[in-house]
Amino acid sequence: MSTRPLFRKGIIWMVLFCFFSLVSLHAWPVAEQKKLPLRQGHAPRGGAADPEYFEKVATTTVQKAAGRRFPLLVVVGAAVAAGVLVYFLVGTKNSKEDQPVIEPAGTVTDYDGNVYPAVRIGNQVWMAENLRSTHYSDGTPIESFVYDNDEANLGVYGRMYRWTATMRLPAGTDSIPDRVQGASPAGWHIPSDSEWRELINAHGGEDVTGGKLKESGTAHWSSPNTGATNETGFSAVPSGYRGWGTEGFYNMGTRCLMAVAIGYSGWPTAKEIKNNSAAINGAGMHPDDAITVRCIRN
What we know:
Layout: H1 4-40, H2 51-98, E1 102-109, E2 115-121, E3 124-127, H3 154-157, E4 161-162, H4 163-167, E5 188-189, H5 193-201, H6 206-213, E6 241-242, E7 249-250, E8 255-259, E9 269-274, E10 280-284, E11 290-291, E12 296-297
């Protein structure tokens, strides 16, 4: 979560401290001037003003006013220092407390016996690897692909599935319930766009969240792997995709495409992360393109 609201609150408190202190700085000496002549007495009975008397009164007023100013300037400085201290002690603490909880969340096993680590990110629990299952949870086979048809790529990048296989729905449907199990193991489902949005918003928005989801380094991602920290533990990898027309494989090392549960209205969409950007964006896909799947727990 952004610390900007906390920063604004700290500034507001400091401004208020300074404002009231400065009001006192200018108001107290004036009040002193009004009261001093009453405490010093009045003009001599002769009726003519005594210059020496008023000179003493004026001198006393200036001295007392000046005496008031120095301590009040100290108060202003102390107020500013206190505001800064409160901001860094309380504001920083609240900032840390507002961060989404990120912790291991056990494992999940699919029908084939593949075991995947899971990670809790805020209120959501995600698979920390791409789906590798060749069967739905009831044992029905799923059509799937491995990049370049090379099983050596399976362990890191997982399998890729066409939209209809991912959703387990006939092509052309516009009806998607809130939780689409589709190719997911029992108790899990294909993430909706709103669930992706929750994850993205919790980590600073589209421009930076891709980096926080990407596996860091260049063991799998091509350089420069911009902004990659993997601070969420999501460990997104550049699995590329299988095209629908030429049936070729593309973009391993530079592009990650993950399924979104969405009704078919034109082309379905995916969430896309690239090696040269810290962003995560939506990408239009052909229904027969095959991409990776990340599941989220019910």
